[in-house]
Amino acid sequence: MAAAKAARALARKLRAELERHNHQYYVLDQPSVSDAEYDRLFRELQQLESEYPELVSPDSPTQRVGGTPLREFDQFAHRTPMLSLNNAFSAEEVMAFDKRVGEALKSSIIEYLAEPKFDGLAVSLTYARGEFAQGATRGDGYSGEDVTPNLRTVKSIPLRLSGVAVPELLEIRGEVLMYRRDFERMNQRQRANGEKQFVNPRNAAAGSLRQLDSRITARRPLRFFAYAVGVIEGAAAPETHSELEHWLEKLGLPVCPERRVVSGAPGLLQYYGAIGARRADLPYDIDGVVYKVNSLAAQERLGYVARAPRFAIAHKFPAEEASTEVQAIEVQVGRTGALTPVARLKPVFVGGVTVTNATLHNLDQVRAKDVRVGDSVIVRRAGDVIPEVARVLAEKRPSGSVEFQMPGACPDCGAKVERLESEAVYRCTGGLFCPAQRKQALLHFASRRAMDIEGLGEKLVDQLVEGGIVHTPADLYRLGVAKLAGLERMADKSASNVVAAIEKSKQASLARFIFALGIYHVGEEIAKILAHHFASLAKLLYADWEALIAEKERVQKENTRRRNKDESLLAPVLPGVGPEIIQSVANFLGQPHNREVIEQLRACGAVNEAETIVADTPRGSLGGKTFVLTGSLPNLSREEAKVLIEAQDGKVVGSVSAKTDYVVAGSEAGSKLAKAEQLGIAVLNEAELLQLLKGSR
């Protein structure tokens, strides 16, 4: 008696919860729970009603489909019910379904039609004497919403059927959906117009079709696929479901091309695996596969249970969305210093794997979704995509929750965290000593355009860092042959070559050294400007950056005023370097640990400051001349040629235009040479380039 009473109370609770979710999903288009969680609750109620048959009632969610139609639409009574399908979640359940069908039909091998299960909105289309007369949503399976004007705007739905022997009356069942690429484009437009963005293509399709203003629907990229027939009058029905869909295709209706006729449970499971492997490549979202007994006569013999046909079943894919709880929000530091907030989750099975973490991308995304510790959230994972928090179930938020705040200091090294005005990302400024950035910092420091340490590649850097031998670039200059020779794939000869390359790098210019530091936003050209302006590393280190920013902003403002009055302009401070870049340099050099590493590099002789004082050197006569390099030169690499040209204040660009002064061409020069000849631009070989450079000094 007590058990029955408890079961009754649990059934009442489950029904209320499922009805609430139905209303949110089918009526409001605002799902409050993941599909996987809904399926779990539904199956729990099914099991309970199976154990206690007296609990089954006509208003139970297990006895009907969908939700109540909106009052704003006229109701449409379906001529035959649009029932949903029972679900299978495992191979064992599919085999059990095939066994039941075989036993009922007294046949050992059953032929089925298998096709994708669209993740859209089910509708019915009624054609009278070949003309589209009425369309409706599924609603609760027995009556839906009359959305005829909206369906008429869907371009893939024919307004008149084609072919011969068109029935007097034909009611078609199918799915309205939205292609993923169309969904992305639509959301981009919504963002640009400051309008609501949709969560996924399914919600977008449902929301678009159920607009009271059909003009809005007409602007939405909806599509339709037919997959069944409710009523046929005035024409003979085909004998199989596959022939039926082929017939619909001949009438001009779109039918899924991915459908296949298969035999028995092995054929069903083979199709499931094949379509699952192609799932990410399909243009639309699917959440499983539908299996139907192919013979229409056999379908009729098998009939229906309370809410679903006995002749068909939906084999669902592992859930790509699931609900769980945010247990903590931590911040990870990437190789480039970018800080990414990550949600630590209560483990949940989604997309075929157990998920414990989900990226929150950046602070703007956290704010937009308002993710907090303790929140119940929907986690999304599609294919191999990194799991992400799709949305927060705000109604389940615990009291006392607080907004997430990005830390002011790097969690790995304690350096200051910066966020430039033009970016959404926060970054660690401790690039020379931050453990998270160590490998990337060393590889950049040693790269060809920086200090050019030949032989110091990714594999060697991995060994040096993971072995605790090198922590900062300064440690490179303390390496000896013996230490390197003891590493994997390193012999005395190769170790000696690396040590020699490190020693040779001490000849690097100040510009290369500045670039090698890896300051965010400081590329090769900015490094050259800084080197030219400050003339020495010491002046760069002890610059008054706040004063520079203030002066740059003052000159910019003054030049704006002068430009409006057609007056002569002031010379800009650090031309080509904006306040944002200056602030980035200031933040980097403001970190004591970065300065410590730089001082260590100076002590090692990693930069020859005496040779890089260029502030007072006269400009070369190539100033203002533009060069393009193409083909292979006999003796010079393109990089060496570029350095020589830029040393004389020439400019090297990547493409030929009417503004190009010279094209330097080597062997195997291609389209750039042809374009230069077409435009009448001077073409130089290596010897002529060297002669020009000699004459410009």
List the helices and strands and how they pair.
Layout lengths: L1 H26 L7 H17 L23 E3 L9 E2 L2 H15 L5 E8 L2 E8 L2 E7 L5 E3 L2 H4 L17 E9 L2 H13 L8 H9 L4 H5 L4 E11 L7 H10 L9 E4 H14 L8 E8 L2 H7 L9 E5 L4 E13 L4 E13 L2 E7 L3 H7 L6 E5 L7 E5 L24 E2 L7 E3 L9 H9 L11 H9 L6 H4 L4 H5 L6 H13 L5 H7 L7 H11 L2 H5 L3 H20 L14 H11 L2 H12 L22 E5 L7 H10 L3 E3 L8 E4 L5 H9 L2 E3 L1 H11 L1
Parallel strand pairs: 2-11, 19-20, 19-21, 21-22
Antiparallel strand pairs: 1-6, 3-9, 3-10, 4-5, 4-7, 7-8, 10-11, 12-13, 12-15, 13-14, 13-18, 15-16, 17-18
Helix pairs in contact: 1-2, 3-9, 12-13, 17-18, 20-21
Task: Tell me, rounded to a whole number, the average pLDDT.
Answer: 86
Domains (count): 5
Radius of gyration: 35 Å
Structural class: alpha+beta
CATH class placement of the largest domain: Alpha Beta
Helix fraction, binned, reads 25-40%
Q: CATH H level of the largest domain: which superfamily?
A: DNA ligase/mRNA capping enzyme
CATH topology of the largest domain: D-amino Acid Aminotransferase, Chain A, domain 1
Written overview of the protein:
- The chain is 38% helix and 19% strand.
- By secondary structure, it is an alpha+beta fold.
- Strands 12, 13, 14, 15, 16, 17 and 18 form a 7-stranded antiparallel beta sheet that branches. It has a 5-stranded mixed beta sheet with strand order 2-11-10-3-9.
- Strand 13 and strand 14 (353-359) form a beta hairpin.
- Helix 1 runs antiparallel to helix 2 (35-51), helix 3 runs antiparallel to helix 9 (264-277) and helix 17 packs across helix 18.
- The longest helix has 26 residues, at 2-27.
- The chain is elongated and about 95 Å long.
- Residues 610-619 have low confidence and may be disordered.
